[in-house]
Amino acid sequence: IDGLEVYLHANFRQVGFDDRLLTLAQCVDGCHYCTFATLFIAQAYGIELSAGQQITMLLILMVTSKGMAGVPRASLVVIAATLAQFNIPEAGLLLLLGVDHFLDMARSATNVIGNSVASAVVSKWEGQLREENTEDPELKAVLETGVPIHKEHG
Predict the structure, then answer these.
(1) CB 65: neighbour CB atoms within 10 A?
(2) pLDDT of residue 129
(3) Separation of alpha carbons 145 and 13, rounded Å
(4) CB-neighbour burial class of residue 88 (10 A; exposed 0-12, middle 13-18, buried 19+)
(5) Is-contact 26 1, C-beta < 8 A?
(6) Which of 55, 77, 114, 145 is the most exposed place for a label (fewest CB within 10 A)?
């Protein structure tokens, strides 16, 4: 998890978000990009993949891409492994090298926004989202400074 996501998680916990919901939102962070990138390479080589193969690829990438959001260029490693699994030439990875840096930055921004919205919606549905109470001294301090309060568990 990168620094911005750590900051947001700490703030989300203070307003009642459940850690399980935040983790669920992160599970699908990179799998979409990796799936589309792998399909792009397959199409560039003229390799037809059935709907079943594409769904299998998505499921594999949901597992293998877990935790790659905080590691620059980790998507390239995951895509390379997936290409080999589906007998797609790994040399196709070179098609992505020129744009991956920019896509990585966009993915990070999209992941943070998507995780925020998804966690807020599910927390609201589950009734776990607290109403904002600006009279609460801890919340007031966070709202004024932007720095999360870390409590010691003992």
Answers:
(1) 23
(2) 67
(3) 17
(4) buried
(5) yes
(6) 145
